Every structure is written in structure tokens, then in C-alpha cells.
Here is the input.
Amino acid sequence: MIKAWAARAPKQKLEMFEYDPGPLKADEVEVAVETCGICHSDLSMIDNEWGFSAYPLVPGHEVIGCVAALGDATRGLKIGQRVGIGWACGSCMHCDQCLSGNQNLCAESAGTIIHHHGGFADRVRAQWPWAIPIPDGVDAKEAGPLLCGGVTVFTPFAVYGVKPTDRVGIVGIGGLGHMALKFARAWGCEVTAFTSNEKKADEVRGFGAHHIVNSRDSSQLAKAARSLDLVIVTVNVPLDWKTLIATLRPNGRIHFVGAVLEPIPIEAFDLIGAQRAISGSPNGAPTSSAKMMEFAGLHRILPQNEHFPIAKVNEALDRLRAGKARYRIVLDM
Amino acid sequence: MIKAWAARAPKQKLEMFEYDPGPLKADEVEVAVETCGICHSDLSMIDNEWGFSAYPLVPGHEVIGCVAALGDATRGLKIGQRVGIGWACGSCMHCDQCLSGNQNLCAESAGTIIHHHGGFADRVRAQWPWAIPIPDGVDAKEAGPLLCGGVTVFTPFAVYGVKPTDRVGIVGIGGLGHMALKFARAWGCEVTAFTSNEKKADEVRGFGAHHIVNSRDSSQLAKAARSLDLVIVTVNVPLDWKTLIATLRPNGRIHFVGAVLEPIPIEAFDLIGAQRAISGSPNGAPTSSAKMMEFAGLHRILPQNEHFPIAKVNEALDRLRAGKARYRIVLDM
Here is the structure.
């Protein structure tokens, strides 16, 4: 039996929950959880905000732990090896996307907390390619949030050929944004933080920002016109999109990783005139996660975490829900 | 004096008009016009639809002609050489975009018919890099529309690394779209035409489409879900954008070259889930135009034109305005 914490219904507090995971499949790895980050999407799933939650729901998809069991068809992993598991825990492995290394874009990609029990537990399972080795040099106690939030903001750097000579803007300096600042700075870029909270200025500079712009002040946004090559949007609230798009230089890209629910009105002319692009991406492929881990190890990039023991998981969730987390929360098992 | 045809005020018929162009600047070339295509944006400028027209307005930015005079600082052109002039007739030549070969993205790019007299005339001037040599193998009588409409639809192929193994959709099979079909087919791609006019089916296949989808029929659009790598939108009217975006495969791109005036509502999830992008571009850089001309020459790609003598320019404009042109109109001087 696996001992976990689960929501029994939408918006409920988590309770202790035991389940029998059944026999380990041939391509599965079972991981003994050491720590697990809390991501905003855990809240969205607990609350059934996206309409596809199944209960009892065991959240947790920023897992760090050690390999406890291996199916017969797994490759390259060893019992006892430290690994991480993020948003996805499986994919079909035979479609065009999977075979070309974009497993995160597989139409049958399986979510760690979607009809599957997640990492707020003593053990959790994943298809073996989705168990990402944690290299030496990465502090395992703090690394959990890299597995989802980290690779989510790292992916645009990995897949779009961002150059160290590019100017990068990060919109929203929270759980995702503060990691994005660190990656952008380590990538060699000139980095602008867009935040509505000016009290954070010193901290935001500490994360890597060279410049700070108030994201709610259209006149400040306007001053940044035609200055940026890549803007990564980590917020999920509406902003002055037209003026934000105008901050892009010719050939610039605004990239969404935050699930902005309200439609974003795009004027074709704002794209056509300067050959701009708008895009988005979900978490990352296993190789992106592995590259991110190596890059994070080399540059000593870690999220800034608060720690809670798993027994205080509901307190931790309330703190995240209240927007008080600075900047990410990790549960210790 | 240059003999031209001009609109004296918005929405007026063109009248004969003579003007003194002044001394030829050092970096300018003067071209004796042989033919000039009519582009939909000539109508937009005559009507002051975009609010920056200046009168008298001489339209015409799909010029084919021969070099009649060269300023002292021009390079690589010879008197008598056949060249073409498109939407832009100049740029600053010293900004980052100009120096890196993206002169069409220069913030000071000059339009051939924006505060400058265009090609409905016996002569027209341009900064020398914007006079594009017409190679042997390109039929000069028919090539005019390649200079604006042609390079506009060719640019996404040239700048985004489109591969012959990609699947390409073209939305709107008119003046721009029929050239886009020809380029996409010659590029080696599997080509889908999206049109609301099913009567054109045979012609549309003749231009290069392997498949035809009714762009107004959301159920037909839905059947094409996750099937295309690049969709080029040449129309300027609202469509079922959400379903059209869903026709993109993971990593796919929808690219706007038509000036859709109404904002396009984009849901971030539709981009994030499959790492899709939305983009746009304006005409093309001189090297894109030159490459397009060589490619068009090799593959015998020409627009399908109707011809009018310049004396019947108002008749020709009325025909285009009525949406009756099949598919492009060229004025013979």
C-alpha cells in the first residue's frame, strides 16, 4: 500500500489516504519520495478548475526521490538512484512527437496527477523516461520545483534558439518567474523583470534582473517598446497585452507558460509589422528536463523555497492559495 | 516631369497627374515602368483605410521596369537592367535590422506609395537595394505581383525553416493565396487550401493544392485537427480562429500576412498544450525578394493575371474592389 495525502472532493482539505498501486508495469519505475514541491496547478487540480480532476486526488508533481523498484523494460536507471518526476509521468513513446524527442507534446501524454496518484505520498510511479536523473551539484532538498515550474520556464530557452545576446523579459515574478529570471541571467541575457509588486525590487534584482518594469503601468511598458527579443509570461491574469507585445523587437516572441484563461486579443498588424510571434509551451520533454538539471547544477540555480513537513500540507496549500509563498513551497516527507 | 495616375482625395477615381521628382538622390535608382500590378493595399491607401494616406496619391508597388537612371552611390545595377520594386522603396540601412539583412523590419522603412509616388506612372524611384533584379526565366510581363503579394507569402517559407516534409495550409485563395499555393507546392510540401468558394476547386488544385477544406465550415476545419505544420492566413476577415489554430500539429505555426483588422481572440491553452505559435510578417527583405525571384524562375511560378492598359486603371480598380479579379491585375504602361 502507498501512503498518500488526497483531496476527496473539489476544494476539500487533503486527508491521509492509502491505495494499492497494483503490480509494477514493465516500463514503470517506483520512486520513494523524499520531497515534493507544490505547484499552482496542484491547487487548480484540487479545485477541479479545469474540469478533469478525478477523486480521490493525490497532488504532487515536483517529486524528488530515490528509485525503489524498476519494471523489467526500464532502461538506464538503478535502484537507489536519485531522480525527479514532473508534470508528466508517461507518453505513448511511439507517435511522431515521442519518437522525435518532443514527448511533452504527445497527444496521449499522461499527467502525474491526472487520473494518476501524485507525489504527496511515500511512493509514486512513472514511466521510466519521465524519471529524470538528478546530477551531482544539484541540491536534492531544494530541486523539486525545477521538475515542473523550472522546466516550464526553461523550455523556451531550450527549444527556440535563444541567444545570450538576446534581451529577455519575464512577466510575473512568482513561483515560475523567479526561476525564469535565474535561467535568463545564467543564459547570458540582458534581463528585464515585469512585476506589479515594486516592494520586491531588491529580491528581483537578486534573482537576476538587470531592469524592473511595473507590469501594471502602461506608460512604463510603453517606454520599453521594441526593446526585447523574448518575453515569457508566467502570470495567469489579463494585462495590457497590446503594449506588452509592442515591447518586442522585430522578430521578437512573447511566450506564454501561464494559463491565462481570458482570451488574449491579438491585432494582426502588431505581429505583421515587426514579424513578431506569440507562442506557448507545456512543461518540457525528458531531454529538456535533463539539460535543465545539468545547467542548474553548473550555475547553482535553485528555486527559493519554503519548507513544510508533509503533515502540514494543508497549511502549505493555504499559504500558496493566499499568494504568500516566497517563492515556492516544498513538502518534506 | 513624371506622368502618373493619382487619387486627389480618399475614395476618388484616379486622374492623370504630373510631378517633378527633383534631382535623383545619390542612393536612388529611377525605373522606367513597363507593367505594375494592383494590390489590395493600393485600394486601402486610395481609400485612406489605414489613416496615413497623403494626396495626391500615386498607387502602384508591384513594378516591373528597366533602370533609367542611377545615383552616384548605387551599387550593382546597370542602366537598362530589368528590375522590380515592391511595397518598400527604402530603409535606413544602418539600424540593426538593416545591417542584419532584415531591411523589411526597419522602423524607418519607406513605402513606395506612402508619402512617395508609386508605380502607376511612366517612372518611379527607389533606394537601390530595393530594386530587385529580375532573372532570366521570369516572364517580366507577368511578374509584377510577385514583388509585393509574392514575397509576402514567400517570406514565411524563407525565414522560418519550413521543410518540404511539412504540411502547409493556405487560408483564402485570392490574389495572395493562389501564389502561396504555388510556392508551397514547389517547396515540396503537402498543401491544403482553405477557401469558402467551392466553385474554385479545380482551379485551386491547379495552383497546387492536394486537399481543399471549406474555411467557413467548422466541422470540416475540425476534421483537419492536428494535421498541419504551417498555416498562412491571407484573408482579412474574421474566421473560426480557435478551430483553425487547432488544425496545427504540435510545434505548428499560424502566420498572418492578411491585415485582419478585428482582434483575434487567442486562448493561451491552445498555444501552450501543443507548443504552437502565431506570427505575422510584412512583405520581405531584398534578399528574400531576390531568392523568391530565382525560385519562381526555376519553378515557373507566376501569378495568374488579368491585364488592363493603364488608361483603364479605374476600371481595373473597380474590378478588384468588387472582388472579381482572377486572381491578380496587372497594368500595362
Remarks:
- The CA atoms of residues 84 and 132 of chain A lie 5 Å apart.
- The domain at 150-280 of chain A is CATH 3.40.50.720 (Rossmann fold).
